[in-house]
């Protein structure tokens, strides 16, 4: 596949990831904010609006505003820039670039929320019985998918 096609596909991956996240957050804000939770598939999937001022699973939400801004906005932006530089400087494979692109796209979309609103909109949780995930969004799924792709490719390289 030509380099131009690969770049186009990569840009499409990033744009569709950010676009899906932005649209779903807008829909969550419009239709879920201030409303009761909505449950599907026997409460396996629950739509519930939340604004997260912290990080993953609201870690750090209780920190002071300047410290949260430094950690979750400034440091996140720096990490995203470093990831982009590393991914293009040390290209290992198209798989690695796609994985890092997913993580960067998700991180960038959440960063937009932090810069514009000071919080990140989350709206989905999954679970069975009393065991539930934290509330998350599409950007979080992209970040996790990118990390899992990197770990999977690393695990395949380990000697058996």
Secondary-structure blueprint of this entry?
Layout: H1 3-31, E1 38-40, E2 45-52, H2 65-89, H3 94-117, E3 120-128, E4 131-132, H4 138-157
Antiparallel strand pairs: 1-2, 2-3, 3-4
Overall radius of gyration: 17 Å
Helix coverage percent: 55-70%
- In what order do the strands lie side by side in the largest sheet? 1-2-3-4
SS class: alpha+beta
Number of strands: 4
Number of helices: 4
How would you characterize the overall build of this protein?
- There is one protein chain.
- By secondary structure, the protein is α+β, with helices and mostly antiparallel strands.
- It has one domain.
- Helix content is 61%, strand content 14%.
- The protein is built from 4 helices and 4 strands, in the order αββααββα.
- The protein has helices spanning 3-31, 65-89, 94-117, 138-157; strands at residues 38-40, 45-52, 120-128, 131-132.
- The protein has a 4-stranded antiparallel β-sheet.
- A hairpin with a 2-residue loop joins strand 3 and strand 4 (131-132).
- Helix 2 runs antiparallel to helix 3 and helix 3 packs antiparallel against helix 4.
- The chain is globular.
- The relative contact order is 0.16.
- The mean pLDDT is 89.
Task: Give the tags.
160 residues; alpha+beta; four-stranded antiparallel β-sheet
Quick summary of this structure?
The protein is built from 4 helices and 4 strands; from the N terminus they run H-E-E-H-H-E-E-H. It is α+β, with helices and mostly antiparallel strands and 160 residues long.
């Amino acid at each position: 596949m030509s380099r131009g096609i690969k770049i186009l596909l990569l840009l499409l991956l990033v744009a569709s990831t950010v676009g899906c996240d932005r649209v779903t957050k807008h829909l969550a804000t419009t239709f879920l904010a201030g409303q009761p939770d909505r449950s599907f598939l026997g409460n396996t999937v629950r739509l519930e609006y939340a604004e997260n001022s912290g990080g993953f699973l609201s870690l750090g939400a209780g920190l002071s505003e300047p410290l949260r801004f430094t950690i979750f906005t400034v440091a996140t932006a720096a990490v995203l820039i470093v990831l982009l530089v590393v991914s293009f400087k040390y290209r290992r494979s198209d798989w690695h670039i796609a994985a890092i692109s997913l993580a960067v796209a998700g991180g960038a979309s959440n960063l937009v929320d932090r810069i514009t609103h000071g919080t990140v909109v989350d709206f989905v949780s999954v679970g069975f019985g009393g065991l539930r995930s934290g509330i998350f969004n599409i950007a979080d799924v992209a970040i996790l998918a990118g990390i899992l792709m990197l770990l999977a490719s690393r695990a395949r390289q380990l000697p058996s």
